[in-house]
């Protein structure tokens, strides 16, 4: 499988601008099977979603159209507001995975970043999401989820983790270490895509990369600047490694 990481500089609350920039990066990296955008790629990390979160699905519509156009899956999270049956608006940090045919699967971020006030504006998801694409099974995670290994624990149900983020430069070392830890402990590929640039609260250096099941870097974006990188990963290589070095047989059972 060919995976392209789209490490973007997100313009604040500007979905059209961010979609155009993402599309330029995709066009410049043709031929992938999967394109991965950062967390809240269309708006920036909005802890107060009122007036910023999308309710009409414009950015999701762009993801669907683009996936069909380039014949590849696209994923990334959006700040979403949706009405319930009583007309009450609920906000979610929703990680969408859009297949080649436009089919949509999503994961609502479980661990909201309380230190930054994300839990004041959003409601947490309660379900893990594993999506299948081209013979691979992917566990979807979002940013702060990376710190919680129990939530991401392998239950014989996935081959890799896709984690999208707005992870600040001040905690870059934790990002680098935790991506490798999740890959090693679960014997899986980890795809981590972070943004670059600045918003009102933080500076972001990216560090987007693909890590293999041994903790080695397969491919990485250039630090501190918008960039795209494509990685080739091999499901048969992963299966051989898991079969030969059977660490997962000895894991603690829930």
Secondary structure layout plus pairing:
Elements: E1 2-7, H1 15-27, E2 34-36, H2 58-70, E3 73-83, E4 89-98, E5 104-108, H3 118-121, E6 130-133, E7 136-142, E8 160-165, H4 172-186, E9 189-194, E10 196-198, E11 203-205, E12 209-211, E13 217-220, E14 227-232, H5 235-244
Parallel strand pairs: 1-2, 2-3, 7-8, 8-9
Antiparallel strand pairs: 1-14, 3-4, 4-5, 6-7, 9-12, 10-11, 12-13
β-strand amount? 25-35%
Structural class: alpha/beta
- Biggest sheet character: 6 strands, mixed
Beta-strand segment tally: 14
Number of H- or I-type helical stretches: 5
Task: Give the integer mean of the pLDDT values.
Answer: 97
Helix content: 10-25%
- Principal-axis shape: globular
Low-pLDDT runs of 5+ residues are none
User: Ends: how far apart?
Assistant: 31 Å
H/E element order: EHEHEEEHEEEHEEEEEEH
Radius of gyration: 17 Å
Spatial strand arrangement across the major sheet: 5-4-3-2-1-14
Properties at a glance:
single chain, 254 residues, 30% strand, six-stranded mixed beta sheet
Task: Give structural notes.
The chain has 254 residues and is an alpha/beta fold. It is 22% helix and 30% strand. It contains 5 helices and 14 strands. A 6-stranded mixed sheet has the order 5-4-3-2-1-14. A 6-stranded mixed sheet has the order 6-7-8-9-12-13, with helices on one face. A two-stranded antiparallel ribbon has the order 10-11. It starts with a strand and ends in a 10-residue tail after the last helix. 42% of the residues are buried. The model has no long low-confidence stretch (mean pLDDT 97).
